[in-house]
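Q: I'm writing a short methods note and want an example of a predicted protein-small molecule complex. Could you take the sequence and the SMILES for S-adenosylmethionine and return the bound structure as tokens? Please keep the output block clean; save any remarks for afterwards.
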Amino acid sequence: MKDLETIQGSRIYGRRQAKPLKENSAARLNEYLPKYSIKPGKSGFVELSKLFDHNPTEYWLEIGFGKGEHLVEQAKANPTIGLIGCEPFINGVSGLIDQMVRDNVTNIRIFKDDARLLMDALPDQSISRSFILFPDPWPKKRHHKRRVVNPGNLAALSRILKKNAELRIGTDHHDYCRWILARLMENADFEWKSEHPDNWHIRPDDWPPTRYEQKALKAGRKSTYMTFIKKAYN
Ligand SMILES: C[S@@+](CC[C@H](N)C(=O)[O-])C[C@H]1O[C@@H](n2cnc3c(N)ncnc32)[C@H](O)[C@@H]1O
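A: Understood, no commentary inside the block.
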């Protein structure tokens, strides 16, 4: 697996830790993270077939799961799927583990670092669905290069997504929404699945809410829910 130094534009822009973890959460993190965390095999690639206790029918990936509400709900609703969550913010990872333990969820594996490192270590066409929900908008122009939805990450996703796989992206930020659509439209590997323009403001039933979406709602901001399909031609 590569380290961040060898990845262009190397550092992660965001917090790795906020306030110290509560004693119980820290204990749960220490106990469960080693069991659920993802380590690449000798080849440098993640050996998906060895990752889960069950034999998943598909693998789904969430990038930047925050505190993990969406990931846990998807895992509970889809017990045959192997879910992979990626999040460098340790308080978020701890929040996910608390929910997994509380709800006895075992079909999630965690990568506690930058999504770029994980994507690099996933095999070609191995992921059937991917989620990037309410990524940090980095509104200032000089910070746009920090946006997670960018040409490099879309190329990495295109490599690891299966043909006809879904990429779901949600945002409450108008400018980032336009940016996301533009980046996806200029990438020939994806097409936007929009049956009707009104649909973007309606969260699909099988798309559980997230903490940031709820925050936006409380602040009176509408969100956009976009689904892209990885084209089948390559
Ligand atoms: C605004 S929060 C949204 C969290 C959650 N998806 C939600 O909707 O509530 C964006 C998250 O993306 C994570 N993030 C930022 N850069 C990342 C990267 N390179 N790889 C993985 N996660 C990243 C941040 O740590 C943060 O938790």
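A: Remarks, as requested: Residues 12, 14, 63-66, 86-89, 92, 114-116, 133-136, 148, 210-213 surround S-adenosylmethionine (CB under 6 Å). Strands lie at 59-63, 82-86, 108-111, 127-133, 161-171, 190-192, 224-230.
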